[in-house]
Amino acid sequence: xxxxxxxYPALITGVASxxxxxxxxxxxxxxLLAINGVPLRDVIDVQIYAAEPExxxxxxxxxxxxxxxxxxxxGEPLGLDFAEPLFDGAIRRCQxxxxxxxxxxxxxxxxxxxxxxxxxxRLSFLHGNYVTLTNLRAADWERIAxxxxxxxxxxxxxxEPEVRAGLLRHPRAGDILTHLRRLxxxxxxxxxxxxxxxxxxxxxxxxxxxxxLAALRPGVVDVTVVPVGLTRWHAPxxxxxxxxxxxxxxAQVSGWQDRLRGASGTRFVYASDECYLRAGQPVPELDAxxxxxxxxxxxGVGMVRAFLEDWPxxxxxxxxxxxxxxxxxxxxxxxxxxxxxxxxxxxETGIPAEVVxxxxxxxxxxxxxxxxxxxxxxxxxxxxxxxxTVIILPDEMFRGPGGRTLDGLTLAEMRQALGCAVVTVGLxxx
Length: 430
Fold this sequence. Notes:
Elements: E1 10-15, H1 20-23, E2 31-35, E3 38-39, H2 43-49, E4 54-61, E5 64-71, E6 80-82, H3 121-127, H4 138-146, E7 152-155, H5 161-168, H6 176-185, E8 190-196, H7 204-214, E9 220-227, H8 243-264, E10 269-271, H9 273-279, H10 293-296, H11 303-309, H12 311-321, E11 325-331, H13 335-349, E12 353-358, H14 375-382, E13 389-394, H15 411-418, E14 421-425
Helix pairs in contact: 8-9
């Protein structure tokens, strides 16, 4: 006797009006179990199995299972939001033991999700999370091919087997080129990254990595080169790149860009903004990113250029924030960019704008990006300002549940502590 497939109740948190789900009379609070008789493991299954014109939704409502039917019109949105993207509750955890992993460098006492080391190819497809491919099973490879889960985002770091195995501390990590060739052969587009550690996978090792990945074009779309991020809790023996080393990495990347652009029409390899800012070099112009910015931004590549291109919109938002004077808060890395814009803003609008670069005492001063600033560090750095000051905080600070900072403060609590009007604007490097 064949066992029935398991159902994973997916909590519906949103039903859009004028959608297929609305016409099927699905409701917030329902649990979706299956579409057209197929149990659902995650949002990917929903997207695929709900593409049919005739839809049967098996839901659980009030402890009872109910079927709702509708015909989905061509181009009509499904219109469902879920509490979680993965319904089976089995997020694929990372099996590697990278000593440079940022999650292992987190201080104690933060919210639980910040300590989850995910390495799930489904989240790579859905959200652009970088994965290592060291934990894929045969069924995973079959699903990637069958459902054509493209693009995927892969943390390569190094292509030399012994170097990558040493970095990830995983016996199968050295098979990365085999895995990448397999993805390319089935038509999956792959975005890759190399997080560089001084003396470990830079220099000649980076040259080897870029050469190996370039040989897999166009299936491998790009490589982003990112310097390692270290908090005060980093493993012994690690250190950040110096400014001079950052300049050397840029020269190496530029050489590869010149070589590869002639062969493929794109630069293929892109350095993170941090390299340019640390080296004191101007960020590239927009066309230097080969129309890849949407895929590169989340990895810290091109964010400064995107900000400069979108400056008229940010300027309008800052004017709308009002105040007799403004105080713009950012991390140490992005401050030079904002200083220049702040001076121009003051000249053009007559509103004095002071840019304050807040050192990160919470994670350690080697962490310089605005998105990892805590409320406590901002409050300590600003103290009490004139009451007519409007404080502009980067909205990336408030990504926690309920709009909280990493150390648990809400915007309202920040206003109370600072004694001024406080608004958030997307003025940061992430």
